[in-house]
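Worked example 3 (structure in, sequence out).
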């Protein structure tokens, strides 16, 4: 069959036709007239119409297809069509490999667009803007619409949210008129991430009610508050209550440090009181306000009395003479004398710690007692030097409570210059407030006149 079909090949067909012509020529005598091409052509046509060929010297039968040329033309057209189709397929494959369909990134995260861009070797240009509607890094828009084909390696521009503007001024409501839920809604609506609601216990404010507000710094006020500023709003959690499940130990005779450790562990408030004791050592517990093994709750208060040891009772120095005042044991007594107009000499004027006071180990044992020096007695300073008068008057009078002062005047005298030669009063009792005039020698006379000369001028103290 294959041999038969091969006869219809264009080369075999031409070859067979040439062999047939040669055979015809061999059968025709040389001296005869040559057959005209027209007769050969008509013979070929007859052969085609009869659909049979005569046997050649190889006994093969040749069949001529009259539609051969048309088939060959169609074959070329098919080859061209297939070539065009192949080119289109190649172009389609190339386009598909180098282009990608744009997804929808709007309302999604920038990270999604970044992952997609890296996967498709595209450059992502993120432009950020403030937005109260969109969350941070959420895409607002993209420059290439969803579904559009874009070439790989190109630039994709997306606009993403930076979140709300942190520097925007916010008008704060009156939190005292709002519930906790109202404030939570206000925070969510204005995206105030730095506004915090906290609750704490209160013995006076009902649960859920407003307590106070606290800004992040002293410079922040309700008038200049911005979104980025810190603010804490406190609401009451009501009164804190605890179960009475803590057993109180017997602290009597125990150290104060043991009470403090137990109170810290169990969150108990301790009120310390102090008292002297002749039996309990200083620093040890004398008594407690709650009996041992009694059940109390956290935050409850327990009063504990701590011994200060044996107390020193301050005596009444009215009953003690100035000579014996500094001999009192356990006390450091400082004795002073002071002039008094109506209190006789030696009697007590005052003591710095009242009589009957109990001084504990933590207290100072120093006491100042002041006795009376009686009325001031103005001594004679005649013969003294003027320069010694300030010290003398301070030590003799002013340091003892008497405001005794002096004035000076200068007189002609044969006494040494600067010597006291005259006093307006001396060697007598005077009042607590008194001024004496003193005459000072000029030393300008040759011979003394009983130390007294003629007065010229007077001067103040």
């Amino acid at each position: 069959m294959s041999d038969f079909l091969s006869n219809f090949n264009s080369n075999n067909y031409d070859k067979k036709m040439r062999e047939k012509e040669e055979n015809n020529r061999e059968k025709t005598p040389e001296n005869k007239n040559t057959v005209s091409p027209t007769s050969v052509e008509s013979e070929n046509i007859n052969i085609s119409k009869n659909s049979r060929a005569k046997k050649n010297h190889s006994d093969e039968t040749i069949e001529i297809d009259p539609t051969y040329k048309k088939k060959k033309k169609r074959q070329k057209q098919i080859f061209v069509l297939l070539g065009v189709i192949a080119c289109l397929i190649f172009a389609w494959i190339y386009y598909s490999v180098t282009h990608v369909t744009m997804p929808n990134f709007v309302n999604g995260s920038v990270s999604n667009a970044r992952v997609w861009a890296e996967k498709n070797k595209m450059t992502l240009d993120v432009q950020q803007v403030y937005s109260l509607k969109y969350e941070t890094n959420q895409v607002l828009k993209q420059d290439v619409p969803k579904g559009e084909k874009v070439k790989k390696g190109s630039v994709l521009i997306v606009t993403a949210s930076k979140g709300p503007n942190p520097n925007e001024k916010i008008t704060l409501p009156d939190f005292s008129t709002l519930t906790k839920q109202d404030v939570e809604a206000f925070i969510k609506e204005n995206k105030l991430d730095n506004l915090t609601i906290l609750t704490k216990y209160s013995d006076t404010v009902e649960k859920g009610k407003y307590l106070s507000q606290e800004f992040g710094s002293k410079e922040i006020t309700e008038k200049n508050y911005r979104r980025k500023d810190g603010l804490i709003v406190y609401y009451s959690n009501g009164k804190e209550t605890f179960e009475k499940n803590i057993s109180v130990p017997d602290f009597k005779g125990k150290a104060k440090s043991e009470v403090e450790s137990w109170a810290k562990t169990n969150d108990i408030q301790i009120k310390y009181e102090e008292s002297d004791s002749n039996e309990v050592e200083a620093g040890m517990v004398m008594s407690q306000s709650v009996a041992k093994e009694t059940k109390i709750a956290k935050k409850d208060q327990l009063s504990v009395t701590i011994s200060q040891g044996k107390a020193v009772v301050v005596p009444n120095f009215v009953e003690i003479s100035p000579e014996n005042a500094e001999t009192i044991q356990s006390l450091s007594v400082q004795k002073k004398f002071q002039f008094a107009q109506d209190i006789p000499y030696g009697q007590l004027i005052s003591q710095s710690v009242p009589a009957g006071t109990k001084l504990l180990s933590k207290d100072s044992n120093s006491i100042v007692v002041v006795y009376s020096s009686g009325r001031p007695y103005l001594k004679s300073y005649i013969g003294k030097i003027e320069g010694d008068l300030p010290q003398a008057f301070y030590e003799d009078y002013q340091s003892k409570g008497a405001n005794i002062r002096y004035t000076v005047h200068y007189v002609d005298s044969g006494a040494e210059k600067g010597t006291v030669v005259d006093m307006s009063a001396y060697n007598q009792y005077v009042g607590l407030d008194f001024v004496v005039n003193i005459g000072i020698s000029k030393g300008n006379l040759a011979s003394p006149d009983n130390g007294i000369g003629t007065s010229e001028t007077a001067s103040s103290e």
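Notes: The radius of gyration is 65 Å. The chain has six domains: 2-66, 102-161, 175-236, 246-307, 312-372, 377-459.
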